[in-house]
Amino acid sequence: MSTKKFLLEEKDIPTAWYNIVADMKNKPLPILNPQTKQPMKEEDLYPLFSKAASHQEMNTTDAWIEIPEEVRELYKVWRPTPLVRAYGLEKMLDTPAHIYFKNESVSPIGSHKLNSAIAQAYYCKQEGVTNITTETGAGQWGAALSYAAKAFGLELAVYMVKVSYHQKPYRRSIMQTFGAQVIASPSMSTKAGRKILTDHPNYQGSLGTAISEAVELAMQVPNCKYTLGSVLNHVMLHQTVIGLEAEKQMEMAGEYPDVVIGCFGGGSNFSGITFPFLRHKLTEGKDIRVIAAEPASCPKLTRGQFQYDFGDEAGYTPLIPMFTLGHNFAPANIHAGGLRYHGAGSIVSQLMKDGLMNAADVKQLDTFKAATMFAQAEGIIPAPESSHAIAVAIREAEEAKKEGKARTILFNLSGHGLIDMAAYDQYLAGDLTNYEVTDEDVAKNLEELEKIIG
Amino acid sequence: MSTKKFLLEEKDIPTAWYNIVADMKNKPLPILNPQTKQPMKEEDLYPLFSKAASHQEMNTTDAWIEIPEEVRELYKVWRPTPLVRAYGLEKMLDTPAHIYFKNESVSPIGSHKLNSAIAQAYYCKQEGVTNITTETGAGQWGAALSYAAKAFGLELAVYMVKVSYHQKPYRRSIMQTFGAQVIASPSMSTKAGRKILTDHPNYQGSLGTAISEAVELAMQVPNCKYTLGSVLNHVMLHQTVIGLEAEKQMEMAGEYPDVVIGCFGGGSNFSGITFPFLRHKLTEGKDIRVIAAEPASCPKLTRGQFQYDFGDEAGYTPLIPMFTLGHNFAPANIHAGGLRYHGAGSIVSQLMKDGLMNAADVKQLDTFKAATMFAQAEGIIPAPESSHAIAVAIREAEEAKKEGKARTILFNLSGHGLIDMAAYDQYLAGDLTNYEVTDEDVAKNLEELEKIIG
């Protein structure tokens, strides 16, 4: 039994976020105004987001964006996070591979989401905003933002996807304990919610619908902004602290990863762990593989299509260039609520299109098998989302074993699963199933999308 | 908003546990064989515990006991834990006091219990034991031991107090995910369980009953030992890593605590944080106050009686010199399941008797009020158990404010409450109540005890 954590000091918390767009030869296509189909400008985003976030969203030139001192100060509550050599898992798999994971589960909220929540709440506060709204899937983002909102004295309303609202009541309670208002989505409190409930009375919600509701509320309340936990460029930016720390820690370990893996919903933790490593590929031609691990039931990167689509279900957001299954795609009720999203953000979609990264899909039962192995080997119960990354890391380690070759694998443990135990219960009882979408489903959905957007 | 963590490096994980008994002028009274009423010897404990644990239990001479390298290695999974200056809470209370907390909630299991679980599992493995049993209240100890048992390849059966089994199903799932067998106590699987279920068919269990069941099973299964998460001297010993680290960290902070606070159930986290500081009082006459924070509904230190009593409900254990409410005391169903125990271990009881420490009781509603304040101020949702310590720390800070004087307060955050959110829900909904025992209840219970034990 041996254990190796690589620990940084507080002074090593990055002082700047890494903006990968500045280093991309092919920049992401612009987001478009859905009415005019013209590229949107920074100012067009001001009604929705803080000015600082809007500026970051559109910044294509500065590779490094300074982290405000107040944000770094709050990062110190739990950052830097450990990088861990997963000796236990290596032993269990009897693999020559070296497996490392960045442990973002040590945040007080249990996931990486605080990295952007603190930044977004800070900017809103700076600009005199008093109220914010957001959506949340499994509740990780909502819980993080609830704490960040409280820390900066902002009022927060969270639309929580209904299936998760019931599957994960404890995350709802966490948000309420921090003083946030939580509404199950779809709800009757918005036009978007009422419409989908009228069309599909038993619809259990999706991130796309919850975003519509949160956006709608933000537009109606005075001095209120909307915040998003994933998909957008500024969120990816804030999450790069994960990979920037991991870069230094891999150096401490004296290794460089052959492959870097993150689970993939809207892309926040994936971008966080991988972009700082992709930088070496973009700027120095470094040979490194990067893999997005997505659910087989929501396979936008492996089976979706690259095209303009809405970020939300009701069509309130700008048109985003994305790998998408269609904003009208209704994902199955898997326990990895944070990955139930129809599309990928514009940066990741461009990287994918340019062959700079890969994607792999994982079935629900395989994720729980991987999660249980990891828990028993490393003592940490992973979030169902993170378990997708673990499953792909295990695949990589098994391949290395077959080849009889060493391989250095790094994945992001984006969160712990202590509040997802009902899912583990079902798995242990044999009550969980796999969900897969058929090619026909995907094709049909995308055909409908063509009709809406063209 | 400012944040200050005091962090140690892995090399600073203590290399020896501190055995306070060696420094006590009045040693704890010996534990007695209930039949003969004669002091028990180390060998008398071998049928129940590992030899190493039995030896530690009886060691009254060595102040320092070396921590095995394999145990230190596993401690590195999460240790050293941070010491945090609670600036947020200080600001919220507008107090001149300086409040520090040792954050044991960062363990992958979410509490301090791993400190002893790893040591006990290690010793059992070393001695060729294959099966272990235990009891658990809220499930923190059971979860910790489940991981430790898996790490050392031991089979584990856990008797979980029935009220917690239902209140905290996620902790049951965590144990099962690590591969442990979990039985709600009282159960029909033991004589002790059957007896109490016959007498009180709806009894929701207590730690005392669960201990009886776990001990009974351990005596019946070949090559099986019993392990306990609190009360006993060797458990207190293992937990001293908490205070030993905190001692160094308070030095880093350039302060020395005026008062050290731990919540109190059987004494494990309390002893862990306080004994290394009490050492300065015992050996150098240092002026320091030490407070055990216990539930008003289970007030053994504030209202119990010092006398010999059983450690369990059925009377299977040796007689222990303890402050007790009587082993037949049925505590109210408060959410702080880990504090629902009738007595204090022999070391703490002797310290209490000699006036070397104090105790304070806290009502359930006050603990949740304190917990919510702490969560909003510091971003960490505390366990209901730990919230007793927080409530007393807040009292101390408020007193300091009244006096207009600085005061340095240190408390142990023994665990997080992410799995106790159902309790927070009830609190937020106004559905929680206080439970108190009357003086008559206590007197009547102790009278019965006299009849049994004399």
From TrEMBL, chains A, B:
Instruction: Say what the protein does.
Output: The beta subunit is responsible for the synthesis of L-tryptophan from indole and L-serine.
Q: What Gene3D superfamilies has UniProt attached to this entry? A: 3.40.50.1100
Reactions catalysed according to its record: (1S,2R)-1-C-(indol-3-yl)glycerol 3-phosphate + L-serine = D-glyceraldehyde 3-phosphate + L-tryptophan + H2O
Name-wise, this protein is: Tryptophan synthase beta chain
Residues in domain Tryptophan synthase beta chain-like PALP? 78-415
Species the sequence originates in = Parabacteroides faecis
* Stated family: Belongs to the TrpB family.
- Does the keyword field hold NAD? no
Enzyme class, spelled out: lyase
In the record, N6-(pyridoxal phosphate)lysine modifications are located at 113
RNA-binding listed as a keyword: no
At the top level, the lineage of the source is Bacteria
